[in-house]
Amino acid sequence: MDIQTIISLDRTKCAVQCNSKKRILEIISKTAAEQNANIEVDTVLTSLLAREKMGSTGIGNGIALPHGRLPGLEKVIAIVVTSEPPIDFDAIDNKPVDIFFALLVPEEQTDGHLQTLAMVASKLNDKETVKAIRNATTSDDILTALA
After folding, report:
1. Would you say 131 and 98 are in contact if contact means Cβ atoms under 8 Å apart?
2. Which of 13, 40, 83, 144 is most exposed, with the fewest beta carbons within 10 Å of its own?
3. Would the pLDDT of 117 be above 70?
4. Contact 3, 146 (CB under 8 A)
């Protein structure tokens, strides 16, 4: 799977003002629901919060990969958000997070979900990609960095 198939401009937000883990997950949930009639904000938020209760999706280096399964979703979608300033997200390295790459997958997809997470994690392991995302001033810049 190519990362370009799951990201889009209308699900990308640059430098959102945010100050808490719950609030950034609310922003991600609202962004997802605004762009997909089959998605309810509360369903997304519940799924993301349930996953965070199992352990933080903050993978270190200021990056988090919140993710959840949703009933009624037809394909994997991503929501990419950067925050200004970085926020406490209980990341494994205890550093604040400013890059959020959220994945929503169809409820019945398990293997594909893990492969997609691995692909995204690999992309975000590239220092130049992460630097370009952090330097982005628009959503277009973020998409360009991920291309």
Report:
1. no
2. 144
3. yes
4. yes
Q: Count how many residues are written for the chain.
A: 147
Other CB atoms within a 10 A radius of the CB of residue 137 amount to 10
Largest CA distance in the chain: 37
- CB contact set of 63 (below 8 Å; sequence gap of 6+): 91, 97, 99, 100, 101, 124, 130
Joined tokens for residue 145 = 């960095």
Residue 7, SS3 per DSSP: coil
If we measure between CA atoms, which residue out of 121, 113, 99 comes closest to residue 28? 99
Q: How does pLDDT run across 49-73, given as a tens digit for each residue?
A: 999 999 999 999 999 999 998 988 8
Q: Which amino acid, one-letter code, is at 30?
A: K
> Catalytic residues, which ones?
67
